[in-house]
Design goal:
The complex is a heterodimer. By secondary structure, chain A is of the alpha/beta class. Helices cover 37% and strands 25% of the residues of chain A. In chain B, helix 3 runs antiparallel to helix 4 (65-87), helix 3 (43-59) crosses helix 23 (489-516) and helix 11 (239-259) runs parallel beside helix 18 (366-387). The chains are: A alpha/beta, B mainly alpha. Chains A and B meet through helix 3 and helix 4 of A and helix 13, helix 14 and helix 19 of B.
């Protein structure tokens, strides 16, 4: 699924969270969005998901202007915020059933796949416990199991590497995300951890104070000059005066 | 500089502008957020709209100043109670408990905070009460509805503004906004209502007077005040004192029982349990509750097959929270929703209390009898409000609001589909809660002197209304959890608020009219039509206007 932001500006009152951002996300791409706190990373994901409406500019999916009442488009994407939105008294099994209904996915003969996903993320043992009783990492793993069960074309993930998941869960997430990209899915995630972004993305997008300042191919990040490039990036953040 | 001169006026204007600039700088966007950008359809508007409608209709009766006084009394009684309760809200309690658990904080500090808030609640109570007394005094002395409505409206608006300006440094911004909005709404509607009443007095007398009387009989606040004015002859010298004691007592009772001590104890318990669970899992490497009963692959497959076939999506809100409270066995046998189940006990106690106390006290002094009437009315109000269909609380959404907005925002669901599901659930809840409500209302209606047939008619009308107004609950739930006025500017926000107020006005008129026409279904049909219209218009706006679905505060 191709996603494109064209000249998107988002204001909250007098604060500009995103400023004239134009960027394209191609199918089969893993994109990391980095930036300091308040850079506009989450706002960008919220706009892509249709939760927020741009103050100016537009969002296009597969070349078509997006409005949030286009359910057929929304069924092709899923957004997992930093704290996944779930009903605390529902179990993971209930959650998956709810998602299958909302995203109009078939529920027959999917048990083995769901169980395999739960085992992958080590949440099978707690699959019938109320989600509200799980730890933060387990809740995030449950959210990822839901996402993988639906297998949308566009993955939007806010800070998955700061979600409290254990190394096992993080490794499973990376493995599944890479496999999804290989299947043509688009994976967009935000992070503040440069080392993670450096190792795990096809493209790095840098936001600073609402502006898209750099777009760096993943290969460049892993080249011999990468360390110097990242240091320069950090320096540029420091030098940018706060608006 | 001479008072009234041009120089004086210029100087005054400059001072006002400078003060406004200072104010804006000191309170960045809080004022605008709380007052101007209030969500247009929020329950607050209905809270304003209902008493405003009361004043409006009361202004129509040139020969009923007592009723106007009653409506005014109703308004500030409810305002006072709501305010006192919210000052000690559960959310605030949880915050305190959280601080106490995570920081080296002595419990005594918590209690000092509680005392401070109680003191504020008391100040608010007394302020509102004294204003109400002044209003009542003025109304009693004035023989004319139009000036009364005008004066009452303007006075309330001015007073609310004064309260805001005086107390904004101490009261949270949200509170300031509520007070100001309530005052302005009331004042504006009072003025408009008074004017309309002067234009069309005959029509209102003919159509609304019987409805008001009957409505006041079942509406706890109106009933309370009507009874007071009917039985209160012996209290001419003392009623103010009694009323003061009553209001204060109820406020404190409400604050302690509903929003205060009980919540605090419950919150402490929950916190203890969570800490205990955490320490247990640290010790044993468990994963909280879930670790105690790890399920197998076969369990999961079986659960999936049963869950996926039972449409948890459609059923989920009906028995919401029952399992978490360890009451899952009630699902099978209990006809009422869990919210009712868990809230009933202390309200039952409140209902039973006057039934026991009144006969014991009635014979001792006439003023005790009248006072007990008032107390009984207040208790009726308490008992009816949380259960479902009251003319007041019916507009306040239950906890589904966040879930609705969350679901709608994060998953591909339309307003129409989701709100239809919600409507079914809400109607089912209202129907399920009805046995409780019927019992309580019948218990209290015994004191009104209505015949049994009339009582049943009133109950039937109320039941119909409870179902008819459910669309408004859905609208309120959506509005409460989205920034539905954040992108449309102050003018459009104001227009929407005005439309909401007018809707509330007519809805209230229809509600009261329906009660008056108990035994016929015309009023209820009218209410259903109005509520459905508001639901549909809001949905249309919700799907089309560029509203943000997240309540992200401006940074």
């Amino acid at each position: 699924m191709e996603a494109r932001l064209i000249g998107v500006t988002k204001k909250f009152g007098g604060t500009v969270a995103l400023r004239d951002v134009t960027v394209e996300f191609r199918p089969g791409e893993v994109v990391a969005v980095i930036g300091l706190n308040g850079a506009g990373k989450t706002t960008l994901l919220n706009i892509l998901a249709g939760l927020l409406v741009p103050s100016r500019g537009e969002v296009r999916f597969d070349g078509r202007a997006f409005a949030r009442d286009q359910l057929e488009v929304r069924r092709r994407m899923m957004f997992i915020p930093d704290v996944p939105v779930m009903f605390g008294d529902e179990s993971l099994v209930d959650h998956l059933a709810t998602l299958h209904r909302l995203y109009e996915r078939p529920t027959a003969n999917v048990e083995d796949r769901l169980v395999a996903l739960m085992e992958d993320f080590d949440v099978l043992g707690v699959a019938r416990a109320p989600l509200g009783t799980l730890s933060r990492g387990q809740i995030h793993k449950s959210g990822l199991v839901g996402l993988l069960a639906i297998d949308p074309e566009l993955w939007l993930l806010d800070e998955p590497f700061a979600s409290g998941m254990d190394p096992h869960g993080l490794a499973a997430f990376r493995r599944h995300a890479q496999a999804a990209a290989a299947r043509g899915r688009t994976v967009i995630y935000t992070t503040q951890i440069l080392e993670v972004a450096q190792r795990f993305c096809d493209r790095l997008i840098v936001l600073n104070q609402g502006e898209l300042v750099r777009s760096i191919p993943g290969n460049d990040l892993r080249s011999a000059h990468a360390e110097g490039m990242l240091d320069t990036l950090l320096e540029s953040f420091r030098e940018t005066p706060t608006r | 500089m001479r008072f009234g001169s041009k120089g004086f006026a210029r100087s005054l204007r400059a001072r006002v502008r400078a003060a406004a600039r200072r104010r804006k700088a000191e309170v960045p966007s809080a004022w605008r957020n709380s007052v101007l950008q209030r969500r247009a359809f929020s329950p607050l508007v209905f809270r304003i709209g209902l008493p405003a409608a009361g004043i409006f209709m009361a202004g129509a009766f040139r020969d009923a100043p007592a009723f106007l006084a009653g409506v005014a009394g109703w308004w500030w009684l409810v305002c006072v109670l709501t305010k006192a309760g919210e000052l000690l809200s559960a959310k605030q309690m949880h915050r305190w408990i959280g601080y106490a658990a995570h920081y080296p904080m002595e419990p005594v500090l918590l209690w000092s905070d509680v005392r401070r808030r109680l003191a504020w609640a008391w100040v608010c109570v007394m302020l509102e009460y004294s204003v109400g007394l002044a209003l009542l005094g003025g109304i009693e002395a004035w023989d004319g509805a139009l000036p009364v409505a005008l004066i009452a409206g303007v006075a309330l608006a001015c007073l609310s503004l004064a309260v805001v300006l005086a107390a904004q440094r101490f009261i949270p911004a949200a509170w300031s906004g509520r007070i100001a909005l309530a005052g302005f709404g009331l004042g504006a509607t009072g003025v408009v209502g008074g004017w309309l009443a002067s234009k069309f007095p005959g029509a209102f007398d003919r159509y609304f007077l019987p409805a008001i009387e009957t409505g006041a009989t079942v509406s706890p606040g109106g009933w309370l005040t009507l009874r007071f004015f009917q039985d209160g002859d012996a209290l001419v010298d003392r009623w103010r004192w009694w009323c003061g004691v009553l209001v204060a007592a109820i406020a404190i009772l409400y604050a302690l029982g509903h929003g205060g001590a009980g919540r605090m104890v419950a919150a402490f318990r929950r916190q203890d349990e969570q800490l205990y669970r955490a320490s247990e899992s640290d010790l044993h490497g468990d994963t909280g509750d879930a670790g105690a009963s790890r399920c197998t692959r076969e369990d999961v497959v079986a659960a999936w097959r049963s869950t996926a076939s039972t449409e948890p999506w459609r059923n989920r809100w009906l028995f919401d929270g029952l399992d978490a409270r360890g009451l899952s066995w009630l699902r099978a046998i209990w006809p009422a929703p869990p919210r009712v189940v868990v809230q009933v006990p202390w309200r039952v106690a409140l209902i039973v209390a006057p039934a026991v106390l009144r006969p014991a006290l009635a014979g001792s002094a006439p003023q005790v009898s009248a006072t007990m009437h008032v107390i009984a009315g207040a208790l009726l109000w308490f008992s009816v409000v949380p259960l479902a269909p009251s003319p007041w609380k019916i507009f306040a959404p239950v906890a589904v609001g966040l879930r609705v907005a969350g679901c709608h925002a994060f998953h591909p669901v339309r307003y129409w589909g989701l709100s239809r599901v919600l409507l079914r659930v809400e109607v089912a809840r209202a129907v399920a809660a009805w046995p409780w409500l019927a019992t309580f209302v019948l218990l209290n209606l015994r004191w009104t002197g209505l015949s049994f047939d009339d009582q049943v008619a009133v109950l039937a009308a109320s039941a119909g209304l409870a179902v008819a107004v459910q669309p408004l609950r859905v609208v309120a739930a959506y509005s409460r959890n989205s920034r539905d006025s954040s992108r449309v500017g102050v003018v459009v926000s104001g227009l929407i608020a005005l439309a909401a107020m007018i809707s509330a006005l007519f809805a209230t008129a229809a509600l009261t009219g329906a009660w008056g026409a108990a035994g016929t279904s015309l009023g209820i049909v009218g209410v259903a039509l109005i509520a459905g219209l508001i639901w549909a218009v809001y949905g249309w706006l919700y799907e089309r206007l560029p509203w943000d679905l997240l309540r992200t505060p401006p940074r």
